[in-house]
Automatic annotation (TrEMBL):
<dbReference type="InterPro" id="IPR011057">
    <property type="entry name" value="Mss4-like_sf"/>
</dbReference>
<protein>
    <submittedName>
        <fullName>GFA family protein</fullName>
    </submittedName>
</protein>
<dbReference type="InterPro" id="IPR006913">
    <property type="entry name" value="CENP-V/GFA"/>
</dbReference>
<keyword id="KW-0862">Zinc</keyword>
<feature type="domain" description="CENP-V/GFA">
    <location>
        <begin position="4"/>
        <end position="109"/>
    </location>
</feature>
<comment type="similarity">
    <text>Belongs to the Gfa family.</text>
</comment>
<keyword id="KW-0479">Metal-binding</keyword>
<dbReference type="Pfam" id="PF04828">
    <property type="entry name" value="GFA"/>
</dbReference>
<keyword id="KW-0456">Lyase</keyword>
Length: 134
């Protein structure tokens, strides 16, 4: 099985997963906008046991949103989203941006599209630069 490594922004969290994901969703709900400070989460789903933590796990914090099956898990030093077991206990949720290389599957869909940020589609259509514009 192909492996994929992941890490947080400061590098203290390191983990490895089998590159074997069953679902990949962009969630645009208002809570996911808050957890990212951006337009949506990009979450992969895999088997609960599909993770080997190399470091940092003991400093991960978890916040479960009351009344919803929605969780924010992040490393306490740098605030980066990191993998966590879903509230139902049935899946490991892996933020796609926490991976150091590409996952085995492409995004399947955009969920909670009705709650998307008003500026999201304008952003997709706006001018692209390969780096900071001169
Ligand atoms: Zn959401």
């Amino acid at each position: 099985m192909d492996k994929v490594k992941g890490s947080c922004l400061c590098g203290a969290v390191k983990f490895t997963c089998d590159n074997d994901f069953q679902q990949f969703h962009f969630c645009h709900c208002t809570q996911c906008q808050k957890t990212t400070g951006s337009a949506h989460v990009s979450n992969l789903f895999t088997r609960v046991e599909n993770i080997e933590w190399e470091s940092g796990q003991e400093q991960v914090k978890r916040y479960d949103v009351p009344g919803r099956s929605l969780t924010s898990a992040f490393f306490t030093t740098c605030g980066s989203p990191v993998p966590y077991v879903s509230g139902s206990g049935k899946a490991l949720v892996v933020p796609a941006g926490s991976l150091d290389s590409a996952p085995s599957m492409a995004p399947q869909d955009n969920i909670f599209w009705a709650e998307r940020a008003k500026w999201y589609e304008d952003g997709l259509l706006s001018t692209k630069f390969s780096g900071i514009p001169e």
